[in-house]
From TrEMBL:
It comes from the Eukaryota. InterPro entries: Thioredoxin-like_sf. This is Uncharacterized protein LOC107923170. The gene is LOC107923170. The lineage of its organism: Eukaryota, Viridiplantae, Streptophyta, Embryophyta, Tracheophyta.
Amino acid sequence: MEQSFFDRMITHLRSSCKYYTGYPKDLGPSRVIHFKSEREFVQLLQQGHPVVVAFTIRGNYTKHLDKVLEEAAVEFYPNVKFMRVECPKYPGFCITRQKNEYPFIEIFHSPEQAADQGRVVDPSTTRYSVKVLPFNYNLSAYGFREFFKRHGIQTSDRK
């Protein structure tokens, strides 16, 4: 039986369009990191890669967000890390962000060792300065790419 024009078009779209999200993709193992502690988060920042953090609560919109995060995490791996924080489990970390609408996304990047300001109580403590940008673009892998481009965030090893 010959495929209809529509079926051929959809098949072509699924195989060629990177941003078509209406069909499940085989993304392999999840690249989204689940927040467990602030210490682990700081260690991730210290690796020097930008970290996209989704602050979430349970809900239908969060299911869509999860799919987008999974797709983007695979696309930008290993140069951008994606992390999901379930705010009901870690309210202290989420409250410090001072937002009251969930879910929301922030991008942490450019960890640089901060210059010692005044005296440091513990000389073994290293301070890092991190830029935090609110993400307000289209919620898709394409939206993340445009955001990274706009803010000069390095997403590949190419210089």
